[in-house]
Amino acid sequence: MTSSSPKQTFFGLEIDTSFNAEIIKKFFSRRHLFIEFSEKELLLLEAKIENKKIEVSYINSFNLPAESVERGVPKDPEAMSGFLKQTLIENNIFSSRCYIVLPPESLFSKIISLKGDFTNDELFESIENGKLKIQIPIPISQTDFDIYSITNKVTTKKEYSSYVVRCFPKNLINNISQTINLAGLNLCGIENSCNAYSYSLLDKFNNLKDKELIIIVELLENCSYISCGFSNGIVQIGKIPSIKSFPNLDSFDKKYQNLRSIEDELINRDNYFPLKKLDLKVFLSEFKSQLKGFLQDYEGFKIKSVYLTGINSSHKDIDNLLESIIKIPVKVLRYEEHINFGSINSNNPVLIQKFNRVLGNAIGSYLEFFY
Predict the structure, then answer these.
(1) What rounded mean pLDDT belongs to the chain?
(2) Which terminus of the chain has fewer Cβ atoms in its 10 Å neighbourhood, N or C?
(3) 193, 357 in Cβ contact below 8 A?
(4) Beta bridge partners of residue 112, listed in sequence order
(5) Gap between the Cα atoms of 107 and 100, Å rounded
(6) Contacts (Cβ under 8 Å, ≥6 apart) of 328
(7) pLDDT in tens, 252-263
(8) Per-residue pLDDT reduced to its tens digit, 61-75
(9) What is the rounded (10 degree) CA torsion for 363, 341, 47, 186?
């Protein structure tokens, strides 16, 4: 008599959970796995360090069932872990060290000002035991939080210092941890997208002069996020409308010399129309409004440059168009050209700008090799 392989379902999709040979291979693997659970897709990236450069050996995305993810976190850890485990097996990915990146809506972030000098340990303890009150929508005891110093606002009193407090709800962290553990992986770190991008721009932050700052704009399909980088850290500013969406990636059969050539093919199609100033009207209005409100607290500060990232930063000449309007240097953050990356290899046609969060998180996990 033969027994059938154990199976389970993932929102109606049958998956096989019987194969365990990958555990042996994971033991010998030195590669890292980077994951993002987006609203519609599972984004995977496998990488390693070679000659002090990040070499990406695998990068791809997989469709997820509707409403299976909320705020960057699986709703059903058991179902998602089974899907994740089978996906890794089918694509011969045997990394065990796993890093997760979460979207801005997964956390509460706030700038606070405190009188006196404190170590991070002192601040952490004061928040944890309730001596220092942080006003967020849920009790601080129900979050995993961290705190770091940031450039003072111009209105901050001389004896005070400013800090950024980031709070992740524990129920979200628990769901992530459970998903990864059930998939047989080792959860090594959780980061939010804002900080993931900051790792890519550390050299730019370090070169900022007094009262200079950098703006990072993440251009997604449904919205855009703005962050501000100072010489000593980064802070989220707000959420604004999206711009016109970059074309979807259709089925591609031929091989491509590089990932950038996939964007070029979509741009060169007859149904692609380059961005015009009119296409940015709503976006620009909100962008300027958000910056104006934020910079009121940093009067006299100068925006040195603006960096664009996210899937909609794939648009042709979007940097030149935006720069001509706002009269500030604008650059598109491209990891295939980043100094910390050697090569980004993929047998699958993907739009590389969609993976910028996990690529930035990869730099963060390997910082010891670069700084």
Answers:
(1) 88
(2) N
(3) yes
(4) 163
(5) 14
(6) 303, 305, 306
(7) 655 555 677 788
(8) 999 999 999 999 999
(9) -10
Three-class DSSP labels, the chain: CCCCCCEEEECCEEEECCCCCHHHHHHHCCCEEEEEECCCEEEEEEEEEECCEEEEEEEEEEECCCCCEECCEECCHHHHHHHHHHHHHHCCCCCCEEEEEECHHHCEEEEEEEECCCCHHHHHHHHHCCCCCCCCCCCHHHEEEEEEEECCCCCCCCCEEEEEEEEEEHHHHHHHHHHHHHCCCEEEEEEEHHHHHHHHCHHHHHCCCCCEEEEEEEECCCCEEEEEEECCEEEEEEEECCCCCCCCCCCCCCCCCCCHHHHHHHHCCCCCCCCCHHHHHHHHHHHHHHHHHHHHHHCCCEEEEEEEECHHHHCCCHHHHHHHHHCCCEEECCHHHCCCEEEECCCCCCCHHHHHHHHHHHHHHCHHHCC
205-242 residue pLDDT tens: 999 999 999 999 999 999 999 999 999 999 999 999 99
Q: What is the pLDDT of residue 347?
A: 75
Range 353-357 average pLDDT: 96
14 — pLDDT class (breaks 50, 70, 90): very low
Cα–Cα nearest to 312, from 258, 263, 361: 263
Say how far apart CA 178 and CA 172 lie, in whole Å.
Answer: 10
Closest by CA to 314, choosing from 236, 256, 259, is 259
Segment 113-118 long-range contacts (CB within 8 Å, at least 24 positions apart): 113/152, 113/153, 113/156, 113/157, 113/160, 113/161, 113/162, 113/163, 114/160, 114/161, 114/163, 115/157, 115/159, 115/160, 116/159, 116/161, 117/161, 118/161
Amino acid type, 259: L
d(CA 259, CA 65): 26
